[in-house]
Amino acid sequence: MRSLGSFILCSTLAFAKAAPEPTCNYIAGDAGWPTRSEWDQLNQTISGQLIQTVPMGSVCHYEPFGNYNETECNELRKDWDFRHWKFKVWEMGQIHVTHPSEIMNPYYQNRSCDPFTSAETPCELGNYASYSINVTSARDVIAGIQFAKEKNIRLVVKNTGHDYHGRSSGSNSLALWMYNLKTSEINHNYRSSYYSGAAVRLGAGMGVGESYMAVHEHGYRIVGGECGTVGVAGGYSQGGGHSVLTSENGLGSDQVLEWEVVTTTGEYLIATPEQNSDLYWALSGGGGGTYGVVVGVTVKIFKDGPFAGGALVFNNTDTPGKEVFWKAVELWYQYFPSFTVNNNTVQFVLLNSTLDAQAINLPGQTVEDVNKLMAPYLAELDGLGIQYSFTTEYSETYYDHFNNYYGPLPHGAEPVTTILYARLVPRKVIQDKKANAKLIDSLRSVVESGKWLIGCGVFNLQNKIHPDNAVLPAWRDAQAVCIANGFWNFEATAEENLKLKEELADFHAPAMDAATPGSGVYMNEVDPLYKGDWKEAMYGANYELLLDIKHKYDPDHLLFGHMSVGSDEFHFDGSGRLCYGQQDSNINLDVGLVNQAMGWRSSWSMNWGRE
Ligand SMILES: Cc1cc2nc3c(=O)[nH]c(=O)nc-3n(C[C@H](O)[C@H](O)[C@H](O)COP(=O)(O)OP(=O)(O)OC[C@H]3O[C@@H](n4cnc5c(N)ncnc54)[C@H](O)[C@@H]3O)c2cc1C
Ligand SMILES: *[C@@H]1O[C@H](CO)[C@@H](O)[C@H](O)[C@H]1NC(C)=O
Ligand SMILES: *[C@@H]1O[C@H](CO)[C@@H](O)[C@H](O)[C@H]1NC(C)=O
Ligand SMILES: *[C@@H]1O[C@H](CO)[C@@H](O)[C@H](O)[C@H]1NC(C)=O
Ligand SMILES: *[C@@H]1O[C@H](CO)[C@@H](O)[C@H](O)[C@H]1NC(C)=O
Ligand SMILES: *[C@@H]1O[C@H](CO)[C@@H](O)[C@H](O)[C@H]1NC(C)=O
Ligand SMILES: *[C@@H]1O[C@H](CO)[C@@H](O)[C@H](O)[C@H]1NC(C)=O
Ligand SMILES: *[C@@H]1O[C@H](CO)[C@@H](O)[C@H](O)[C@H]1NC(C)=O
């Protein structure tokens, strides 16, 4: 094992650089970067919860960590790119979720310590945090914030590392790792001026699947994503949050009754619709990692009960002279308003070859109801001479329904290597035949090459009462969120993957935008290379107020995230220091990318990247 001393020396040599501007954070190698004994002091104040980053990929490299181990490296390679078929599902990204400083997104992993590069290639920290605090309480959060401020180093907040913009990570940063705050306390009779009913207080580290299980034991259900590994209190509830229950109960952000927050001024606050209501408003939909550090959240829960489900699949068997598939797709979209009566939702994937409605979700209803709901559309398919497979299933609870269609809990099956763009589809587009036809043309242009698929969640939020919050208003008028998905190809070169991302940003996203004028995006599911007006598309009319609230609660500018509110007030200098203040040219997103192993396309029929 190499000594820590040689690691520090080596990283010092690797970063020969000019003195930072006063507004920039220090990076490793700067004279101002904390000394070993200063890190030790921090560690003591937080009872030994400080972790120095050792990337998982270091077992595949000789330098500088000195823990190369061929056996462990081979194991890691099997898990890294999610090819593992375990328990009939892909164990999606669990290895990245449970580690203090790993992140899921290959673009931001950036091959800095990649298990597939040669053992001689040094393992570098790249975008990974340098140190993480394994947070056990608000006290640890306050200690981390104080240290970052005093020492002038970058601070990041990580829960599960799902973020598509690398925002739960950061080069030369101290990370607040919230993931182990796994508590849940049921309150059967929560009372306030704005809600009376059941609620649960979740620690910031609770995952969607874990939360489903925790409330299920008490006979309740809770709004959470279709993906079990996402964290509830982090980016999900802070950024909108769609789910199987969107039509019945609203978005993830709409469920929040109380936020428990540590601000970057070191204050511990409770934010509710009545108390610190501006912070409550911003945190509920204004984006993760921007306004403060959430240590716990109290959300509504609902008595669980019956659920009926369905699944419908039909293929594109068009031949010249017999073109019916896209006609059927057009009709499918026209049916959205009728599908989403009675609080129903539908999730489906559209490929050039198939329309696969993997989950038709009917809360509180029966198989009879599913048949009745789908009969008119199935008659259309019959009329067009399209063969289909249609199945139904009844579950005693939402929990069982979710397990059947999205499970197995707690993780479920989700590919994490998606390159994606999520656009909100307004109801008025669906209801206007010409506009709908144009939408289908744009979606067809996305999937036609066979490289992309469209995954949509269909819902209805019309006339749903919700708290006043910062959720992008376009959600309320939307009938679906439709997501163009491509897949990171670990076997391709850096340039090929980048080209795929650019194809999305240059062609598919603009085509989807043009077909849905005036609408917006789901801020959590947008590719970082998106070239549209991100402020307008992600935050809409809320942006200016969100910025004021950001300035109020984060006056020293500690929290930064790509395309987060206020992010354009920051820049990176030539050596990668995060600086507050404007610079002339924009952040350079040029990148050397990851390239290893996986054939996602062949598994599209099994896993369609439902989001
Ligand atoms: C495989 C996959 C499946 C997905 N499925 C769904 C889905 O079904 N429905 C849906 O709506 N979205 C889904 N998403 C998007 C997901 O909601 C976002 O990526 C979300 O930001 C994840 O939040 P996190 O806290 O788990 O992740 P992280 O990456 O850890 O954090 C995301 C952001 O929130 C911040 N943050 C995290 N914790 C805190 C905290 N305690 N206080 C303050 N800031 C915090 C981070 O700094 C970062 O900016 C999915 C994403 C992936 C990769
Ligand atoms: C912090 O202290 C704990 C307990 O003494 C120790 O195990 C851990 O390695 C220390 N972390 C760092 C970064 O030194
Ligand atoms: C490599 O890792 C394996 C599995 O953890 C362990 O059994 C073995 O002893 C390690 N080898 C060396 C040389 O450390
Ligand atoms: C983080 O802290 C928790 C609680 O003390 C502990 O159980 C866990 O092992 C720690 N994780 C790591 C990676 O240190
Ligand atoms: C839809 O959900 C709401 C709760 O948001 C409920 O009050 C209403 O009864 C539900 N409607 C139907 C038809 O089940
Ligand atoms: C669609 O095609 C797949 C294989 O290409 C086949 O397995 C499936 O049975 C087809 N489904 C229908 C409804 O025709
Ligand atoms: C898309 O579908 C059409 C009709 O079935 C087919 O002719 C075409 O080859 C498909 N494109 C790809 C890339 O598979
Ligand atoms: C990836 O690494 C390269 C080389 O260090 C750097 O220039 C680029 O900005 C990094 N990309 C991302 C997305 O971090």
Structure, described:
This protein is of the alpha+beta class. The protein folds into 3 domains: 1-177 and 566-611, no CATH class; 184-303, Uridine Diphospho-n-acetylenolpyruvylglucosamine Reductase, domain 3 (2-Layer Sandwich); 307-538, Vanillyl-alcohol Oxidase, Chain A, domain 3 (3-Layer(aba) Sandwich). The strands form 6 sheets. The chain has an 8-stranded antiparallel beta sheet. Strands 7-8-12-10-11 form a 5-stranded antiparallel beta sheet. The longest helix is centred in the last third of the chain and has 22 residues, at 494-515. It starts with a helix and ends in a 31-residue tail after the last strand. Bound molecules: flavin-adenine dinucleotide (FAD) and 2-acetamido-2-deoxy-beta-D-glucopyranose (7 copies). One 2-acetamido-2-deoxy-beta-D-glucopyranose binds next to loops.
